[in-house]
Design goal:
The structure holds two protein chains of two kinds. Chain A is built from two helices and no strands. Chain A is an all-alpha fold. Chain B is an alpha+beta fold. The chains are: A mainly alpha, B alpha+beta.
Chain lengths: 62, 151
C-alpha cells in the first residue's frame, strides 16, 4: 500500500474508532456559542421510566 | 507523490476501496454502539425531594389505582394523570400526584443533562410506560388526545 493510502486508511480507521473531536479556536473577547443538540435515547429513557414505576408499585403502601 | 500518480487509475481504485472500507467500518461501529449501549438514565443523586416524591407516590398508589379502575382518573399522553369525573378526593390526589411526577421528571432531566427538550422526552417516555402498565378498563389518552378504555 502506498504511503498516502496508508495515511488515509489510518485516519479513517482512527476516526471510526475514536469518534470526532471538534476544536473551536477564536477571539477570547468574542466567545463562540455552540448550540449542541442533545440526543436522547428513548429506549434507555423508557427502561428508566419502567424501573421507576416498578419501584413505585412495589413499594406501594397497602 | 505528484498529481499524475494521484490521478492514476490504479491509485484511484485503491483509494476508492479504502474510502469504502472506512465508510463500512464507521457504519458497522456506529450501529453496534447503538445496539449494544442503550443510554443509562438514572438518578445520580437521591435528593430529599426525589425521595419525598417517590414515597408520596408509593403512599397514594393503591388509591390512585382504585380511582383509575373506577374511571375517575386517567393516564394522559403527557405522563401525568387527569381527573375525568368530578370527584372531591380525586382533585387533590391528581394535583399531588402530578406535582410529585413533575419533581421526578425534572430531576431526571437535570441529573442526566437532557437539555431543553429533555422534559418533553421524559414525559413522553413515562406516558408510554404508564399506557403499557395500565390495567384493563383503565382510561388512557391516545396520542391524538382521545380517551379510551384499555382493553
Amino acid at each position: 500500500m502506498k504511503p498516502f493510502a496508508e495515511l488515509v486508511s489510518f485516519f479513517l480507521i482512527a476516526t471510526a474508532i475514536t469518534g470526532c473531536t471538534v476544536k473551536a479556536v477564536g477571539d477570547p473577547n468574542r466567545p463562540i456559542t455552540i448550540n449542541a443538540n442533545v440526543v436522547v435515547d428513548i429506549r434507555g429513557l423508557k427502561q428508566t421510566a419502567t424501573n421507576i414505576e416498578d419501584m413505585v408499585a412495589q413499594g406501594a403502601v397497602k | 507523490m505528484n498529481l499524475h500518480n494521484i490521478l492514476n487509475f490504479r491509485e484511484g481504485f485503491a483509494m476508492r476501496k479504502i474510502y469504502a472500507l472506512g465508510m463500512i467500518m464507521s457504519l458497522v461501529l456506529s450501529t453496534a454502539t447503538a445496539l449494544c449501549f442503550a443510554a443509562d438514565y438514572d438518578y445520580k443523586t437521591m435528593t430529599p425531594d426525589i425521595e419525598k416524591a417517590l414515597k408520596n407516590r408509593q403512599a397514594r398508589y393503591q388509591q390512585l389505582q382504585r380511582l383509575k379502575q373506577e374511571g375517575v382518573i386517567g393516564e394522559n399522553n403527557k405522563g401525568y394523570v387527569t381527573e375525568l369525573k368530578n370527584d372531591a378526593s380525586a382533585t387533590a390526589l391528581t394535583a399531588d400526584e402530578n406535582r410529585d411526577r413533575r419533581v421526578l421528571y425534572e430531576a431526571l432531566v437535570e441529573q442526566n443533562k437532557l437539555g431543553s427538550t429533555g422534559l418533553l422526552e421524559v414525559q413522553k417516555a413515562f406516558a408510554e410506560v404508564q399506557k403499557e402498565k395500565a390495567g384493563a378498563g383503565d382510561m388512557i389518552q391516545g396520542s391524538s388526545g382521545d380517551w379510551k378504555k384499555k382493553s
